[in-house]
Protein: NAD-dependent epimerase/dehydratase domain-containing protein
Amino acid sequence: MSSVSSFAAISSPPSSLNRASFASRLSSPFPFRHNTRFGVKCSYAEAGVKEDSNSGTIDVVADVKTERVVVLGGSGFVGSAICKAAVSKGIEAISLSRCQGVPLTQVHGWIRLLGCQACSFLYQSSLGDVFYANWDEVLAGATAVVSTLGGFGSEEQMQRINGEANVVAVTAAKDFGIPKFILISVHDYNLPSFLLSSGYFTGKRKAESEVLSKYPTSGVILRPGFIYGKRRVDGFEIPLDLIGGPLERFLQATENFTKPLSSLPGSDLLLAPPVSVDDVAFAVINAITDDDFFGIFTIEQIKEAAAKVRV
Structure:
């Protein structure tokens, strides 16, 4: 059974708190079972030989591992798409979100369509944000962590949200023994260096370095550009797909003509293809389920990865 649950998420920490280390526990406070053992009794008789009901049986015991993903920022635009894609593939999804006291059924209509049995723990809790989260509770039973944390603001805010918050999450996941960490980062734009030195980009690259350092053979970094889809902001739906979809198709159709321009400084702002939020989400699902999927993935590679699991 697939499920989505949700916790509280992120706020500004004191400047003295930059990293965290957490001990893991073997017991889980959640009512899910992730390693299921079942037995199968089989009997065999050759052709033409009457089967003896008293003959010996073969006991087959198998360990079945189910995936459970923790999505940081799971109530946001990209995070909610990842939760939705996970549930559609039978993966349990846990959302750690900064929205508090709001039922996810009011934020995302797709959860209502799945029914209550598929989505337990829909209300936000007071477990704390990324810097103060009870990681023993949040990460219990998880097989992967996905971070969609990021945002704009002052230099300090962008360094904290894009960089420090992700570093704390990577450290917590590694210390807890989570085998895979997936980071939603940003496209490697060919912008002038003074723009790339802003807190948004330096924070993202700091987070990338932490993932690659702690998860060298299982960490995944997705670098999309402009992500489009239907985005809800303060109760209003912004149809970014009306811009992103046609622009993506136009750039694909004119790729042979625009490719020579890609070497011009700043050209990526216009020529980097948009990516649908569903492609990003399904690329994450590919990363969760494929142990050979790790490293840094560009816009085109994200689309290719999504196509492998999209049906």
About this structure: The chain has twelve helices and 13 strands. The chain has a mean pLDDT of 76. The first helix runs from residue 77 to 88. The two ends are 20 Å apart (CA to CA).
